[in-house]
Fold these 4 entries.
Entry 1:
Amino acid sequence: MSKAKKSKQKKTAKPIVVATLKGKIDITRSGMGYVIVDNNAIDIMVKPMDMGNALHGDTVRVKITRENGRTGKKEGKVVEVVERRQTEFIGHIQLSDKFAFFVPDTDKPMPDIFIPLQFLNGAKNKDRVSAKLVKWDKDDKKPVGEVTAVMSPEDENDAAMKELLAQAGFPLFFPQDVLEAAEALPVVLDEAEIAKRRDCRDIKTFTIDPVDAKDFDDALSIRKLPSGLYEIGVHIADVSYYVLPDTDLDAEAYKRATSVYLPDRVNPMLPEKISNELCSLRPNEDKFTFSAIFQINDEAQVKQYWLGRTVIHSDKRYAYEDVQTIIDTQEGENVEDILLLHSLAQKLRQARFKKGAINFSSQEVRFTLDENGKPIGITVKESKPSHQLIEEFMLLANKTVAENISKIQINKQPLPFPYRIHDQPDPEKLTPFVQYAKKYGHGFDASSPEKISASFNQLLEDAKGKPEQHVLEQLGIRTMAKAVYSTQNIGHYGLAFDFYCHFTSPIRRYPDVLVHRVLQTVLDNKPVVDKKMEEKCKHSSDRERAAMECERASNKYKQVEFMLDYVGDTFEGVVSGVSSFGFWVETLAHKCEGLVSIVGLSEFDDFRHIESDYSLVGKRSGRTFKMGDKVFIKVIAANLDKRQLDYEWVQVP
């Protein structure tokens, strides 16, 4: 063979491999895209002509086309859309004789969607509709879609909530095959399956939930044992019995990963047939459950526990308000059982705080809505002993399941499991908080994680009822890491648990379904290693974060809608945040937050931002506005499109 031929063979033997990276694409209003890749310090820039058929928020594969060796900046081209973040949109129809287009309501650049006339579903020209993207191949210039619903002008509220859900990537409707799969599930419990389970139907059992709840996914049972111990059963809807792996139902539940709770609706993870019927632990019905059953003494010490599948019969459904009345008056149906559960829950709670759990108080804003979804009132709900009763037993079940699984090893490796983890506070955020707390006379020991949690609890106790309570709680929460799902267990700092997971809400959280499945394989002595568990954890954490942002945006929308009727009115409020361009005020009466712009303050003084003191200070007058201050404001504007309230500081109301 000649040298030339040998040389030629060498060259063709090595194909050129172009590496691609996977990440999420963030598209700016200008049309420029940036692909965010895990563990990549610098995002990859993608120009509009290199975007392919990617849309904002999609998970994509990008090929690097240019790289600056000095700065590390990279440019790339999208070569594949791995997963769509959003497939449903709100917008308007443009209709002609032969074709129709859907024009999405979005500030992110995206093409109009071609709608074949047979997929208009009754929509007319200029109608506001929801539409679904059904096809957009790589080489197609236009995506193809279909109209899923036509909205009437009076449905503005409905359209706004659906738009928030769609933008967050949550499907507005269940696919037909998923609904059919749910409808095909049997309503009558299978006798052969009952025979395999621990039968708890003759034990007194009840549910305690919000007054407007429809899906009851947890129940408590109680009885006294001959030994003198109490048997407390925490019974959780057995969703994993109905939703099997690798089915259409499972794929849809995983995609959503969580139910989303908006002021006027729930966007559920599972079809209503499952969430509100088959798996809802309704009174006077036999139901399949997954249970943690504890033997507990008078001091709330667990002496023994059992985990496994059960069948229960709920005797009564309570609202939190009913149980609170029984606790307060010590009268009512099942009073002895409820007072005992209350007493045990409070002892569990005290033991938790003694071990280092952090006692941030929680408030929930609830809207009273008229028949069109318009807010006509706002109430603030705080955590009461009736809520704590349920919370403590759910925490106990979650902790016990996680501890149980943590002991299992396969080939000397921990069994992959979706732990719920919470890291220690961020030192960078903690330092300014400690300095700020000292200004109010609150000492803080940050020398160890244990000392930090003890200091937090002491501070929160000392500040209770004082003007700085709200601001210190708000700032304290900001120092905290976010809880996430992970197979790498580091414990849950905020709860002071070494092992923790989510076991108690499988109707509304996908990780709980995963926990049930893993637990059952362990109970069967056939533990299964799921190599994709960390990926599932990350997806669930991402979807949880998207749901929280969506819920926050919907609450803000309702706040703005509520305050539209009060433009021009004056209210007392508390400064809830400070920046270089103004300060935020939350009204005391309604908990509605708006911005007092520094532009409006300029007529009084020239204010500068003191970051370390969370305040604005007037250069001439020395007048300060700092977090926690009470002030009077006038509502000057309420913008629904921007979900924004503008306030004006009022010196004398």
Entry 2:
Amino acid sequence: MSIALRDALASLTVPELKDLVSHLPGAETAGRKDQIIERIVVCMLGSGLKAVWSSLDETQQAAVAEAVDHPIGEYSEHRFRAKYQRVPSFQVAGAKSHGYSGSKRSGLGLFIHYAHDERCHFIPADLRDRLKALVPQPTPLRLESSETPADKKGLTVRLTEREACQEVVVMLRTIEQARIQISEKTALPSTAALRFLTGKLAGGDFYPWGEEKKNKWDQEIGPIKAFAWPMLLQAGGLAIRSRGQLALSPAGVKALSTPPAEVLRGLWRKWLKTTLFDEFSRIEAIKGQNSKGRVMTAVAPRRAAIEEALRACPVGRWVAFDEFSRFMLASDLVFAVTHDAWKLYVCELRYGSLGYAGSDGWNILQERYISAALFEYAATLGMVDVAYVDPAGARDDYSDMWGTDEMTFLSRYDGMSGFRLTALGAYVLGRDAAYWPVAIPSNVALSVLPSLQVNVLRGTLGTEETLLLENWAEPVQAGSWRLDREKALSAIEKGHDIAELRSFLESRDDNLLPESIESFIRQCERNGKALRMVGNAVLVECRDNETAEVISGHRETGSLCTRAGPTTLVVRTDQLDKFRERVRLLGFGMAS
């Protein structure tokens, strides 16, 4: 900011200037306005600056240091409070101002001024140039992290990296093969589709859902991952809406043969820019989001701020959600959720509007948005592991708001306690140029027998190890499994790589794998993709053999169908409209 000290002082009243000049060594407070300004300028831009600086307390000096270090010399209270957990005093406690009322201005006002037009606090440019040689660099901003998540009652820790790599393939295959109902207008999946997709998730959804409510007014957490996947795949251009159902796009078909990590990275990058969906709309307790006029802000700047903060997170260390929020504020990675908080409300617009003081704070709007983006989308994509509890009673910062008396949570994401950036997340964010799947840590020793049986010799299988074995083997008894050809073929169909099984067994058995095991793996690998679904088709029954012969043999229609019997033709779904049109040209009609 290019405002000079003299100009900043000129905007103050004489009583305000007298407050400030009293903090200068040996300066008189009497005189005309221009004389007082001159005394302050001479001192602050001259030899008296060091003495005035030394008279500030530690917090005030930190505020000046932060502003001097800022690119345009700006001081931000929310940034300072988030970093230091306190704010400097601009008034002298208990001292009366030279004016008619109010407290006396502290010496900090000599350094940090207020620009009414820009609505911000700043250090004048010429004073800032002098301070750069005097003021030490501010304390570096730290993002606190730990080896383990904070211990809480009922805490669940969900490792998402391997799940995401499996699930993205499973979801693509599911959309390719099943009828996933979707709204043409909103792009949202139906309840039936969400239930179906939940059953396809590697470890289930984050919270169980679908159980009957005890009371009709009880809040339901509902799906998170199952909801996120169809939205991500649509936003990423891998799935398209067709007659109320999801279908794979050409890009989606190509993604089936692309390494999962690359697909996930592409989905995140597309999600950052999509306008398909606003994550905040999933916080259903806050109503009015679709009111007339511009209510909600653009989503891209919000996501960009979160992504920048994620880039600062250490890989493999847990960050508490509240600490991440604090870090965003302290880093000035702030964003707005709404243009007009008065149009947002809880229960009833007149009394429950978020425009009332305290109802539209960072904790109510921005933190709820951040938790939705991280929990529902970053975690689903395997970018962050998550630690969470039941949202009911997890946060009570909304309890003073009108209309929230019977609510047990404001957002289904209120239970998010912390997260950990994964190696996959670092790759998706572009911090790492390549991605190598993390090996499963284990203290388990296995015995792999020629009979296809796998026995645990010592240790206990972890959750991920058990899930991996369940893809390829059937449990025989406690600590004993048998590799199963049908399960293995099913796993390969869903997108799992049997090389993962080989690596798992080899790393936990000191002996070479028996030839029968090697043969089992080779055959499953070869036969698991022996057939391939290339699309959906319909059977068309002709009235007689002659009609079928004419249509299948004609140059206009022969390439669009295949004979499947004397009077039966097979037509691919994506060619059906064209086939119907060409058949009419031959003089035939096709009834549904």
Entry 3:
Amino acid sequence: MSGLIRNEDVAYVRENTQIDAVIGEYVQLKHAGGGQKKGLCPFHDEKSPSFNVNTTKGFFHCFGCGAGGDVIAFVMKLDHLSFTEAIERLADKIGYQLQYEESSGPSRPTVNKSRLIAANTAAMEFYCAELNQAGAAQAGREFLQKRGFDKAAAEKFSVGFAPDQWDALYKHLKSAGFTDEEMNTAGLIKEGSRGSYIDRYRNRLIWPVRNISGDVVGFGARKMASDEANPNDQSPKYLNTSETPVYKKSQLLYGLDLAKKEIMNKRQVVVVEGYTDVMAAQLAGVTTAVATCGTAFGDDHIKVIRNLLMDSDAFSGEVIFTFDGDAAGQKAALKAFDDDQKFATQTFVAIAPDGMDPCELRMAQGDQAVRDLVARRIPLFEFAMRVVISKYDLNNPEGRVSALNQVAPLVGKIKDASLRPEYVKSIAGWLGLEIEIVNAAVKKVAGKSHTPLPEAPPSNVNLKDPILLLEREVLKVRLQFPELVLEWNEIEQSAFSYPPYQFIRELIDSNLTTSILDVASAASPEVASLLSELLVEPVRIDGEVSERYVGAIISRIREVALSRQIAELKSTLQRVNPVDEAERYGTLFAEMVAMERLRQEQKVRALGESSV
């Protein structure tokens, strides 16, 4: 599609998209009263929620990192989309057909993210249909059946099959209107030895990978047994989509689109190791199971999970890792121990006694066994420490001391200081040492750490000054409850003494035909950030914002502005000679008297309606 999206379409999408519904797909939001919701910011790491959403006005702002804007800005920033791509995605969500205008400027890119998602979706449908065909797909069906997955399970997870043909998908998508560039950029095809395009996946069982919003962004593909028996076939057992504009494996968790609501409701996430483990766990009733997509569990995955759990010092939840019982699984657990320090919530480990993964456990012992595996979880701290201790011979003093020296740093890493004494006691019991000896070793290690210095204040302006707080409050009610601010035009032009507040007042007065946030963004990022703060920051009153409260603070800011003007008039009068400039003196004096009368009226009104 060519041309620019019509302005009226952009406005329609912005106004008819529920911002909390969109953000709620990525962040768990809690009601904060007055049309406000709060959660952990998805754009930076934080322990306490400072990310605010004004559901009434459709804006968000993080008071920690300064990110803010409307629903379009959120989607652009989080999913790394262009403005056009964000509008197209949101329009798809609300089922709105966009109209494009012809443009004489540079043409739009031939490939955009919405087209890549559409190509992936069409490929998924093709693979799903192929799984039910006769021939090579039988091997795929048998693979699923042997692992306890029937046709309904395959359909639930949209498992499909890539036929053993060079260009079956290519021809299918080509006939559906997708270009070579779109298919290649999406990672669905590749260039063959003869220069023509061929399918990337052939004779493989296919799992579609969706992002948190449910869009198909890539695939995981498993080679069939017949291919594994071929000595000339050097392709990997599992083949995943390479990095594309929509597929970022470090940010994706397989099964999250199905599990996210349960994760938020139960405040639990179970991290398993593969696609079939996710299927087995979710079908067995562990509906919070997810897995990484061919990569190690890392910082971006942690950020995604923390946002869903609303993982902060003020809330609790649990992250449960399932690992194989072998050396690789133990190594993964120790890696997870380090990652645990990036969670505020407690982490656990669930390992079957015989080392089976959830898929194998379900096949051998049924659904209940998988649920029991998760229920028998043990704290990750304990597991990691036992793994370290198991490497030493505790039957001699040297082994016990060596084990203590290795396990003490793990205790020192536990961010919850109240847990450390309990693990000191446990380690003393495991090693057969006195508690005092273990405690001394832990303290010695902990003493080597240091606490980073706090960052300097961002500005020397005291925004907590009562007058600036009043100015801020008036702007907030004007932006969030304009229908209650009946006397806005009567507020003196000098009422806002802080220049950024005055600039926003001028924006409000300019009767903009476009989004005020767009204009602020064009002016400066700082002004845009401040504006988004004001659009979501709760009004400083308990209960409902009323006309009485608004009238009181309007009167109060007018009183302050008039006092400021009266002080300047007095200063001017002192410099005027009442004899030589009698007429001017009289005019200024009369103006000051009238202004003082108006100031007293505003003072009485402010005190009579509310104390601010």
Entry 4:
Amino acid sequence: MSKRKFNSKNKRSTSGKFNQKILEVLLKNPNKSLNYKQIASALNITNIIDREILIKDLQALLADKKIKESDRGKFKVNADQHYLMGTIDITQSGSAYVIVDGLEQDIYIPKNKKKNALQGDVVRVYLYPQKPKKSNHRPEGEIIDVVKRFRTLYTGIFEKQPSGKYGFVVMDNRALHVDFYIPKDKFNGAESGDKVVVELKDWPEDTDSPFGEIVEVLGRPDETSVEMHAILLEYNLPVSFPEEVEREAQELDVEIDEEEIRRNRRDMRDVVTFTIDPKDAKDFDDALSIRKLENGNWEIGIHIADVTHYVRPGTLLEQEAYHRATSVYLVDRVVPMLPENLSNLACSLRPDEDKYTFSAVFEMDDKAKILNQWYGKTAIRSNRRFTYEEAQEIIEGAEGDFKEEILTLDRLAKILRSDRMKAGAITFDKMEVKFELDENDNPIGTYFKISKDANHLIEEFMLLCNRKVSEFVSTDKNKKPNNNTFVYRVHDDPDPDKLQDLKLFIKQFGYSLDLRDRMSVTRSMNQLLADVKGKPEENLIETLTVRTMSKAKYSTENDVGHYGLAFQYYSHFTSPIRRYPDMMAHRLLQHYLEGGKSPAAAPLEEKCIHSSAREKLATEAERDSIKFMQVKYMEQFVGEEFYGFITGVQEYGIFVEIPETRCEGMIRLRNMEEDSFYFDEKNYAIVGRKTGITYQLGDKVMIRVAKADLRNKQLDFELLG
């Protein structure tokens, strides 16, 4: 048990005691000049000693040019200096970066200049003036105050001190470099070793630790359900729906109205229609229809659940969907964006049920050339629910329902895919690891999810719909931009420096990249991804290639298009059950179909930023849930030996991945006894100082599983050679 003590005195000297608070007062009154007495009053300073310190701190801030004397004896923030607002991202080392919208580089914050900011908080930062000689260096600053907490609930392990008078909650997140002080009357039944939820109550200026209250005891930290619950809370993701939101969903009229279909929809219930989804899916938000026209062409319908028919602006359902912005897929559960009454029932395109949809209908010839297109509200009736495996069997020659239709769609999809590749799209068919779970959601096995023709069939028609909807809204009849506001999914070009690093790295494996121009990059990258298939270095090189890519995001600005897909216009339209931006796209398309004028972009851009941020959190939570399951699965193999490949090299150790399970663990340099190793950053390697033994990315090594640390979601390996 920890023997730490609660320190109620800040370690800093009294000099500078009021610096932050002075700046806070002046920043709250940027247009006013305040004298010493007004500042003292605002800070409730009454005793003589503190008044003397205040005077010294004012003089120090003047000397640093953080404030200025506007009139004799009156002070205000120095407008010539930079006070910016942004979001703080704290590193494991304790230093941090503040991400400011519109600023090209993030602002570096030393570990002792974070004030009491916590991960994800919106903060006000003072940007240090850059010296001319260091104009190319990253900007640096210090936190002035916390404008808005990212969250007030945190998860961690409770440690009661021997006296029993107080305890600490040790944080799960390594980026939180503080533990919460819990007085005895705030334990609320927690015992040492429990995983708990703690609420931030206060963080006095003169203390090292925030004050908290335990508001929920989750259970023992090695239980799967406890850990998944904690992961959701850790990323400020919802665990359940508020009662009033569930009630509103239950009270919706979800009956199909024939009058609604007659007046407002194209009735396509008599056209052959089916869904193809994962075998464990419950929310079917897209379906395909196909029929042959009299002229010999094909009519292909891409039908998307009409979520916005039920989720209307101003409702609690709308507010909750926007707040969540995305469904979250953890290993053992789905946390949906919409309540089950909508996501799995009313909106889900289940077989043999009439459903409202929003559709893109294309007339195609046998070469997948689009001759006509139509967009609008429809009604459909799915004839069959296929799993990917069932559809794949038919593609590979088995008999089955709607065989001719599936084979036709497969043939057309392959033409669309080929055309996309020729245009410069990059294809990442990374193998996904899935877990077989027992009745208690504990992992008992692993398997790999591999994309085959059936997956590509659905993917190509969804990409087609997303692209053509975006083009339809954004261009006129002559394909010229019309400046209509829309929600795009944008993806910038790769970082040139990262591409150059990748080129140098893969050279040692005998591969090359052509970086002459954009098309050369995409062609050679696709060739690289094809060449590494089935090779020991496949996963490593695929991972490094993905890391060269920019992050896709939502925006109303379409300056860059979508690099990875090689589309000039691209939006998300096909998954409104699980993504809020798709709902935005539905509403905008309907607005334009009804002849509406282009709305203001600013409110929609704010929603895009929010949606991108929520997507990032969901992705990180999903990644954490996989890490936990991998460690939990590998517990049974502690002491056993495996071969693996080095997937990462750092100054403190090397990461090795076991190919059979895709589980990654660390070998710490301090535990490598054959030599004293140093980190060769240029060659992604560690090198023995005496022997010259080198371990680098991609090397095949033998390891023993030394430890499975569930608390930190980390595997420790021992290097055997």
